[in-house]
Amino acid sequence: MRLSPKIVLSSNLILAPMSGITSLPYRRLMRKFGCELAFTEMINCRSLAYRSKSTADMLASSGDDRPLGVQVMAEDENYLLKGLERLSAYDFDLVDFNAACPRKKVTSKGRGASLLREPKKLAAMLKVLVDNSRLPVTLKMRLGWDNSVKACDIALSAQDAGVSAVCLHGRTRRQCYSGQVDYAAIAAVKKVLKVPLIASGDIFSPELAKKMFDETGCDAVMLARGALGNPWIFSQIKEYLKTGEILTVPAPDDVAAVMRDHFAMSLDFYGSRAGVRQFRKFFIWYTKGFSHARPLRMKVSMVNTAEDMLDMIENFRAVCFKPRKGQGAWQN
User: Fold this and answer.
1) SS3 assignment, position 142
2) pLDDT tens digit string along 152-209?
3) How far apart are CA 316 and CA 296, in angstroms?
């Protein structure tokens, strides 16, 4: 898939930007399992303008973290331009603009999915972004605020503004993450676009990834919640699309080894105290669905030292000998 003259992807599986999750350690881990294109966490252009410390951490990258997109959100053109100015000091491959986040604390400020209620404003902001960015621009959007009536029009306006691709979550803002993904609405948007369409929503398994490709005709899929605690999903989907075979669910030994790797990167990036705190939620995701894991999952919120977290991982490896029937560690 070609996103620009310089960005030609060999994989049609992309890691979505996720707040509090897609930091450098997480992205580096996902790339080991076949993720090619990844994104930073969603970054507020207002925070960029004020040079906040937490924002600087979210912008951190490394030589093996490529290709990499930075996702930004803004409520007006002034902060969008200020954010772009700050980003000029960093080495990213593309800029993604968020008009999809459904959280009230985002939409109440006129950012994220709230812009779907103001299509003309969104198109104008995208035009400003494209005209002033040295990098290709993509748009992350939902089907609409409370219905999908204008989804095609919004996507076409983004294309007219010059975006290189549209990333579409197959739900409205009102749905948030509930209800069913609207495959037909995604397919309708795909039919009107000339630029690539990247579809997202409920990519929890190889079968659901294939369903998205088959029913929408999308050019790529974007994985979010389906990759939590499950970096294997990238290789599993690739194999299924190629051969129709489902790869074996990873055993506790394999999961524990990946947890140790991920935790080491977390400690290296955040430091001991924050690294442990950041990893607690990942421990829960990695161990979800495994028999005998519940007592460990209940205790992990009280773990405060690296030694205790490593003990938790070893306990998981020792006692959680197989996943529950019909489930893998990744399912959410």
Assistant:
1) strand
2) 999 999 999 999 999 999 999 999 999 999 999 999 999 999 999 999 999 999 999 9
3) 7
Q: Is 160 exposed, middle or buried (0-12, 13-18, 19+ CB in 10 A)?
A: exposed
- What is the fold, at CATH topology level, of the domain defined by 2-243? TIM Barrel (3.20.20)
Chain centroid, CA 259 distance in Å: 19
Query: What residue ranges do the domains of the chain occupy?
Result: 2-243, 252-319
| CA 128, 131, 137, 139 torsion-angle sign | positive
Strand (E) positions, 100-164? 137-142
Q: Which long-range contacts (CB under 8 A, 24 or more apart) does 239-243 make?
A: 239/206, 240/206, 240/207, 240/209, 240/210, 241/206, 241/209, 241/210, 241/213
Does the domain formed by 252-319 have CATH 2.60.120.260?
no
Q: Amino acid identity, residue 281?
A: K
- Is there a catalytic annotation at residue 101? yes
Per-residue confidence (pLDDT) for residue 206, from 0 to 100: 96
Please give the Cα distance from 283 to 115 (Å, whole number): 35
Q: Exactly one of 35, 45, 101, 320 is catalytic; which is it?
A: 101
